[in-house]
# Entry
Amino acid sequence: MIRVKRLARLAELAALAGEPGTGRRGSSEVDALVGRRLREARLLAGLSQGRLGARIGVTFQAVQKYESGENRLSASRLLAAAELLRQPISFFFDLSDGAQRVEAAGLTAKEIELLRYYRRIGTEEGRDRMLKLAKCLGQRERTRAGGEQVSMIGASSARRAGGPAAD
# Structure
């Protein structure tokens, strides 16, 4: 029993000293990754930090700290969050940049909302139609933007030459 206490005390001292791999307190790269993936899954599920926290038994402030990587997410809370967010545990540790992965930090709120509703479309045919619609609108906007850019260049050139501006 004395040996166990001595080992526990050594581990505690090592943790206070901040030695790597000794169970030290503080966050790591993995904690930050898990936090980013937690935020991504939460946003895609359409949950607020408060709602997620209430469902896994913590405050919204704790969820904020998990998402920032400031605090570590315990295994039991991670499992509860994964089940609630309908994600496998591996989702939170996946280091690859596969095609299915969406980096929520790079998406606007409207893009996340669009993706969330897209995923709720029940049929493959419906999702295909939505994708075709988005492609069509995106091409139209890009073409229009390109046309406006040309007309703006034309207008600038005409003004410099002293002629009428082209609209």
Helices lie at 2-17, 29-45, 49-56, 60-68, 75-85, 109-120, 124-161.
